[in-house]
Every structure is written in C-alpha cells, then in structure tokens.
C-alpha cells in the first residue's frame, strides 16, 4: 500500500534521542551518559516519574567498536520496561470499525482502524505503522510493522481486538515518558484494554551485583523459589568452559506466566571481555492479570518476581502479581452452579425443543462483547477448565 513507507530511525546524538538535549558526558563503567530532558513528555521534567536516560554502551568486538543503545532507570529505580504487548477492543477507534458490513471488505475496515490507531500511537510512542505485512500473526488475520522494526500491530478476529506489540528496540526508540502516556490511554480511553506481556529488565554493567554465576548459586539457595516447588532451570552456552560468547541462565518456563533470562549481554553482543549482565523477567497474562501499574512502577514488580532480587531496591515496596487459577476455578464453578440453580429446570425443557447451538444462540446476550465483569480476568483460565 502506498500509505506504508519506511520511516527513518530517530537521529542518535551520542546515545541520546533526537529530542534529547545532550550536555557534558560522563564516562562510567564503559557507558556514555548524557543528561537528557524528555521535552515531549506530558509532565514537566522535574515532575516526570518515568524519566529514563538514553545510554550507549560501547563494546570492543572483532569488527571494531560497537555501540549498543539501552535505557537506564529513573532515579531511585532499578529496572525499565523492555517489551510490552497489549490488546484493545476495535471499538476503541469507533463503533463503526467492529460492526461488520457485507458491503465493506474486512481488509479495508482493518486498514481504516489501524489508520485511526496511528494517531494514538504517534502521541504515545512517537512512531506509527510503516508497512502492511499482508499476512496474519499471533492468530490474527492481518498484521502491520511499527516504525523501523519497533513491533507489530495485529488485527482481524480474536473477538474484534487489536494486538499492539512493542519490542525492546521500540521501547528504546519511543519518546521519553511513553509509559505514562500508555497508562493514561489504557485507563481513560481504550475499550477492553489488557496487558498481555510485559518484560522488565535490570542491567549490571560491571557484573558485580548480579551475574549468571550468582544466579546459579541463588538457585541452589532457593533464591528463585516462591512456593514449595522449585522452578525449572536451564543453562545455555558453554558453562563448563566459558568461551567468551556468553552464557544464559533461564528460570521457569516460556509457557508460564513468569520467565527469567539472566545472561551475559556484553559477551552476547560480541565482546568476550565485557561483563555487562542483564536480568529480564518476562510476565505474561497466563493465569494472572498484569496490572496497568506495571507501566508506572516496573522496579517494584521486578524485585517482587523472585526473593533474591529484593536486595536490589530495599527502599521500594515489592508488588507481587498473584496467580488467578484458584480464583478462576471458584468463580467459574460458582457461575455454573448459579445458572444451574436458577435456570436448570428451564434447560431441561428447552433442550428437548431446540438443538444445542440454537438454544445457546437464543439465550446469549445480543451484544457479542458483553460478559460478566467478575469473570473478565479469568476468561482464559475458565476456557481451559
């Protein structure tokens, strides 16, 4: 489509974004730091709670000096968001987009909805869609690329929702303060909003506080154990004879709602002597609800993920995300019992008159998007049961 053309990557000013105001650099731990002011944020700089500093970490590789862009947390914080996926109802962009019309092609309706969403994405992140992939993704019928490989938008099917995926590159290049603007959008404007994945990262550029060997030791001490059962652990890379290509310690399972990757990022980027270590906790909306507050307080949720992370920010109150499997089972069973008690006798008669599918269609609410609010957060778990 003519609409979708490549957008230039924002100009980097020695590690800062184009809208940043660089001042005297401070070289520390192999990192070039610039005092930058998020001029595009909704709040004044002094009051902005999510102020993060763009960094360039310099590595010496076989191919020469390599610059790796990353973000550092705000003052008194120890972690940043490195990936976010969220869904919204297509009706967020207007009722006309989710009401199917036999005279309008779905592809045209989807493109119009994405065009309307682009306005919001430009305000929140500073970039919009750049190309249409003309194929589905993540069980959606159509998908679009965001910016210069900053993520994807998926649309078509899936209960008339849109999935917006902002990868680590997108989080780095997004306008400063995007977390607060996204929070405001989800809370005040979006219909049926839901966070489906949030990755929170902590960097140790010298590897003195946390590293893969420390993590391996913590596993033996129960530092990653929250219940009676120890989590799954995997070692990737050459642990017996480290070869400078980087090692990774994985805690948990990718199929679960929480998964940790602790790895030697500096070596993984090509410098065998660099000891930059990164811990990334991947939270997913599997048997749990990801609260919107994660966007505003990533450090609190990071240190609450595992007991051994608490010492990184003892001044912060950990915020745990409770699993909802047990709650889902109780609410689901209660709903079935209530329906059985109130309408069971009617069903005994109706099932002899109507076919099952016809009966269900007769009894369902005319609004296909309506469902009990108390079952909203357990919908996926209830389906599994």
How would you describe what is shown here?
The chain has 385 residues and is an alpha+beta fold. Among the domains are: 198-313; 325-384, no CATH class. Helices cover 25% and strands 23% of the residues. It has 9 helices and 14 strands. The chain has a 10-stranded antiparallel beta sheet. A 4-stranded antiparallel beta sheet has the order 1-2-3-4, with no helix packed on it. Strand 7 (142-146) and strand 8 (151-155) form a beta hairpin. The longest helix is centred in the last third of the chain and has 26 residues, at 325-350. The protein is globular. Residues 5-41, 43-48 and 380-385 have low confidence and may be disordered.
Q: For the record, give the distance between the C-alpha atoms at the N and C termini, rounded to a whole number.
A: 43 Å
Low-confidence stretches: 5-41, 43-48, 380-385
Largest sheet properties: 10 strands, antiparallel
Order of helices and strands: EEEEEHEEEEHHEHEEEHEHHHH
Average predicted confidence as pLDDT: 82
Number of strands: 14
User: How many separate helices?
Assistant: 9
Morphology: globular
Structural class: alpha+beta
Query: Main sheet: which strands, in order across?
Result: 6-7-8-9-5-10-14-13-12-11
Radius of gyration: 24 Å
Helix share bin:
25-40%
Strand content: 15-25%
Protein name: Replication protein
Domain Replication initiation protein-like C-terminal: 194-354
InterPro entries: REP-like_C (IPR003491)
Pfam families: Rep_trans
């Amino acid at each position: 489509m003519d609409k979708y053309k490549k957008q230039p990557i924002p100009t980097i000013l020695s590690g800062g974004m184009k809208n940043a105001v660089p001042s005297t650099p401070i070289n520390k731990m192999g990192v070039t730091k610039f005092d930058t002011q998020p001029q595009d944020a909704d709040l004044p700089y002094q009051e902005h709670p999510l102020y993060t500093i763009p960094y360039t970490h310099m590595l010496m590789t076989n191919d020469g000096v390599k610059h790796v862009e990353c973000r550092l947390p705000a003052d008194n914080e120890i972690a940043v968001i490195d990936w976010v996926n969220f869904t919204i109802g297509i009706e967020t962009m207007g009722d006309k987009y989710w009401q199917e019309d036999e005279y309008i092609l779905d592809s045209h309706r989807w493109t119009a909805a994405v065009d309307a969403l682009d306005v919001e994405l430009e305000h929140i992140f500073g970039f919009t869609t750049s190309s249409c992939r003309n194929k589905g993704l993540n069980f959606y019928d159509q998908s679009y690329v965001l910016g210069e490989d900053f993520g994807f938008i998926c649309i078509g099917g899936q209960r008339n929702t849109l999935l917006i995926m902002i990868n680590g590159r997108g989080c780095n290049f997004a306008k400063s303060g995007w977390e607060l603007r996204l929070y405001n959008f989800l809370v005040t404007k979006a219909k049926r909003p839901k966070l489906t994945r949030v990755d929170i990262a902590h960097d140790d550029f010298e590897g003195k506080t946390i590293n893969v060997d420390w993590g391996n030791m913590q596993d033996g001490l129960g530092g990653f154990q929250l219940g009676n059962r120890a989590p799954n652990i995997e070692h990737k890379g050459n642990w017996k004879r480290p070869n400078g290509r980087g090692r990774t310690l994985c805690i948990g399972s990718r199929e679960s709602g929480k998964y940790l990757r602790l790895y030697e990022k500096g070596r993984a980027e090509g410098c065998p002597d660099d000891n930059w270590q990164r811990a990334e906790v991947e939270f997913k909306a599997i048997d749990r609800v990801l609260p919107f507050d994660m966007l505003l307080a990533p450090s609190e949720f990071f240190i609450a993920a595992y007991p051994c992370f608490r010492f990184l920010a003892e001044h912060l109150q950990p915020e745990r995300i409770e699993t909802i499997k047990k709650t889902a089972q109780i609410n689901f069973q209660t709903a079935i019992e209530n329906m059985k008690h109130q309408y069971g006798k009617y069903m005994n008669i109706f099932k002899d008159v109507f076919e099952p599918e016809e009966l269900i269609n007769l009894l369902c609410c005319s609004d296909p998007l309506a469902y009990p609010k108390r079952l909203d957060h357990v919908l996926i778990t209830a389906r599994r049961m």
